[in-house]
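note to self: dont lose this again. the chain is below, predicted strucutre after it. 564 aa total, dont forget to put it in the shared folder this time
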Amino acid sequence: MIIKKVFVLLGIAALLSFPSLLANAQELKSPEAIAALMETVETRIVELDLINRQIETAPAVDQDALLYRRSERSFELLSLIDQLAQSVIQMPEDDALRQKISERLRTEFLSAGDKLFVRLNELDDRIKNESAVLDSYSGSKRISAESFVNMLQSMRLKYFSAAVNLVLSREALGIPAATVRSGLFNEMASYGEALIGRVEFTGAAIKEIAKRLKLDPSNADLQSGLTEMQLQHDLQAERLRELVVSMERLGADTRNYRSVLLKNSSGVSVGIFDSEVVVQILRDGWRKTREAVVQNSPDIALKLLVFLIVLLVFRALSRLIRKAVSAALERSSADLSNLLKDILISASGGTVMIVGVLMALSQIGISLAPMLAGLGVAGFIVGFALQDTLGNFAAGAMILVYRPYDVDDFVEVTGASGLVKKMTLVSTTITTFDNQTLVVPNSKIWGDVIKNVTAQKLRRVDLEFGISYSDDILNAERVLSDIVTEHEMVLSTPEPNIRLHTLGDSSVNFIVRPWVKTEDYWSVYWDLTREVKVRFDREGISIPFPQRDVHLYNEASATSESQS
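---
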């Protein structure tokens, strides 16, 4: 295992050195530099042949290290060949060195394609063999084995990238590459389908584990499994991205691959998000929807039918409950307000309907527990945001319970007066006598003095009339008594009260206080006021207005009188 790790580190170092080699290759334009690069290629070919011979005779313990070294040398050789091909293309066509190197490259390229596919097949066999024995390992040994398999998987992607370079270089030199391109595309497409399966499988597994983890958040095994599955998902998605890059260099259509990345990867680059990918995702979604509808249409139709039947049954039951509650309240001897009756009727029917909706939802497979939990959280948030409204709601409930007024009562509240025309749990609507509509929040009403003018069946009319100091008091009392007793709306019980009340500055004042029905208050008030004026005029009784006697005092005459 230690030897494997050492060679893995060597491989990483070799990978880090490749960018500088490529950068230097772009600067090789002189014939001398191209010739030197050709010698380097020849040297690498010899070294690679030596490694191949060592693999045939090496002991089993060294096989993995030598195979890894051969792969790295192959990548380096293919990179150098690609650099050499790009440099040769820039040379004049009649240059002798170009012709010599081109002929050598043609020979090497013809064998390199076959060798590349042989290496890929060998790599596939190694991956299969190593993966097959993973389950027999445990602990650190399993971790090392998994790391080795992941390294081999990454090496496969490097082979694909090198093969793409090989194909593009052959085509640049005019060397036939159709067979190599076709074989490479098939290999990459086959591997891409496998990667898509892994990405979608791990994505689905993550969702399933996450659901179970919500039900049991303290389960450490589920949490560990979710972490491991997420790592596998990200690893497979990253490999699919690298494969997409190589396939696009060959001009392959990668919309399917990019749509999978867009739907399943947590980190999505802008490069995979274009109009074609969006169209492909929409097509896939529509196709899956149609397949699901076709496959599940009988079940869906049955569930919808049951859903509608349950709703219709509970709707009819809700109406029956409303009628039953309404009839019970009408027959009840309890003194309830009209608003409270309406609320009880609506609440009974609404409660039945809510139960029906919940039962209907459960019949189509919707879980009620998360919904109710979500409603609880939403209720808390809404309650916090609507504190004033909830205050009005609470005040409305207190008004319903204690009934300080009811609909069509004449009230005076918070500076507003008029007839109560409508009342809800939030506000009270009052219509003034000049036909203005006032909407008063219930919290304002309940927190202040409530004056209900029409709460009692009887009401006393308070009137006050003044006569002159020179008028006959007994005659005035008789006239006022006649006026009150003759009015048909004035009640005999309780008896009217007519008394000399005050001796004012300008008049002798009588109070006249008859009792009437509440609805007759203003009619009696206006009739008595008019009749008193008419009868006083007829009887010669004056109604004085405020007057003041002014005495003028002459200071000069007063002084002369005092001197005399």
